[in-house]
Design a protein that fits this description.
Strand order of the largest sheet: 5-6-7-9-8
CATH superfamily of the largest domain: NusA, N-terminal domain
Strand content: 25-35%
Number of strands: 15
CATH class of the largest domain: Alpha Beta
Subcellular location: Cytoplasm
Structural class: alpha/beta
Order of helices and strands: HHEEEHEHEEEEEHHEEHHEHEEHHEH
Mean pLDDT: 87
Radius of gyration: 35 Å
Domain S1 motif: 134-198
Oligomer: single chain
InterPro entries: KH_dom, KH_dom-like_a/b, KH_NusA_2nd, KH_sf_prok-type, NA-bd_OB-fold, NusA_N_sf, S1_domain, TF_NusA
Distance between the termini: 83 Å
Subunit structure: Monomer. Binds directly to the core enzyme of the DNA-dependent RNA polymerase and to nascent RNA.
Low-confidence stretches: 352-356
Protein name: Transcription termination/antitermination protein NusA
Length: 358
């Protein structure tokens, strides 16, 4: 093998981060395959690569008393001419390098090195993007087809399904967009990156980017419930009682949360304080509605929430959205009843049964 090929392999190993042994093993296999294909050989052969002496092909032949197949066997008499110590069933290596093998070998080497470089580059790209799963990336809309909008993310296009775009937004080619990486797949066509604008993780990451207290771990996001493009709820908690987690997320004059609302094209966001007490937590989650009482059935993971009559529609929300999001946020089943309905059904018997959750 020429020194140029050696130099090329060393360069690729350093530049592309490919293990040298992998390249040499792949090259050896390719040269053996090229020899058998081009010289109609069934022989078990070995290719020796040497920077100074070049490339040699050796046939591996079994020593036998009587040769039945000269591509696979060699007589004991002929083997002893090579080395008197050979015996039957030994294996003899005999050089069979063709005169014009260099040109064929060069083509085979080029193909296998190109393939390995492509595979290595795909591997590097896959690993880079696999580390970005559940993270936000910014890209530019590059093209569209019937199923996806393709977002240029640097080395790859992110596939944004049309059902992962919020109903209140539309994009044109070359528009810049923030997307949430949902998964990365390593396929025969190379790495495939799937992104979303509707995933609850997008909202969580936006708060982490906008609120330093969340990024630093002072404030913790406990749960997110989202109906993308319309309304979301997020529960937050701070270990330090001196910290107001809701206020930190809202920001001065509402600037922090407004930045996120603007990014999500006007999606309404309720920020509520998490509590380990389900009565308090569910009451908070039903914001902006007031709550009179929360009756908890821990066995069925269900609650009955009683609200003032005039607050019933607010607690339930348009098409049940407020109650639905509160249930997703808290993980509890929520049945909402008005105060008068609760009294009629005997859930609240007297005025004394009513208490202020605040």
């Amino acid at each position: 093998m020429s020194s140029e090929l050696y130099d090329a392999i060393e360069y690729l190993a350093d530049e592309k981060g490919i293990d040298r042994e992998i390249l040499y093993e792949a090259l050896d296999a390719a040269l053996v395959s090229a020899y058998k294909k081009n010289f109609n050989s069934r022989t078990n052969v070995r290719v020796e690569l040497n920077q100074d002496e070049g490339m040699k092909v050796f046939a591996r032949l079994e020593v036998v008393d009587e040769v039945m197949d000269d591509q696979l066997e060699i007589s004991l008499e002929e083997a002893k001419e090579i080395d008197p110590s050979y015996e039957v069933e030994d294996v003899v290596e005999k050089e069979v390098t063709p005169r014009n093998f260099g040109r064929i070998a060069a083509q085979a080497a080029k193909q296998v090195v190109t393939q390995r470089v492509r595979e290595a580059e795909r591997g590097v790209i896959y690993n880079d993007f696999a580390d970005r799963v559940e993270d936000i990336m910014t890209g530019k809309i590059q093209r569209k087809d019937q199923r996806f909008m393709y977002v240029h993310l640097g080395k790859l296009e992110g596939k944004l399904p049309f059902n992962e775009i919020m109903p209140n937004e539309s994009y044109d080619i070359h528009d810049r967009i923030k997307v949430y990486v949902t998964r990365v797949e390593n396929t025969s066509k190379g790495p495939q990156v799937y992104v979303s604008r509707t995933h609850p993780g997008l909202l969580k990451r936006l708060f982490e980017m906008e609120v330093p207290e969340i990024y630093e771990g002072i404030v913790e996001i406990r749960s997110v419930a989202r109906e993308a493009g319309d309304r979301s709820k997020i529960s937050v908690f701070a270990e330090d009682p001196e910290i107001d987690p809701v206020g930190a997320c809202v920001g001065q004059r509402g600037q922090r949360v407004q930045t996120i609302v603007d990014e999500l094209r006007g999606e309404k966001i309720d920020i509520v304080q998490w509590s380990e007490d389900p009565v308090v937590y569910i009451s908070n989650a039903l914001s902006p509605s007031q709550v009179i009482d929360v009756l908890v059935d821990e066995e069925d993971n269900a609650t009955t929430v009683i609200v003032p009559d005039h607050q019933l529609s607010l607690a339930i929300g348009k098409r049940g959205q407020n109650a639905r999001l509160a249930a997703k946020l808290t993980g509890w089943k929520i049945d909402i009843k008005s105060e008068s309905e609760a009294r009629e059904s005997g859930i609240l018997d007297t005025e004394e049964d009513t208490f202020d959750l605040e």
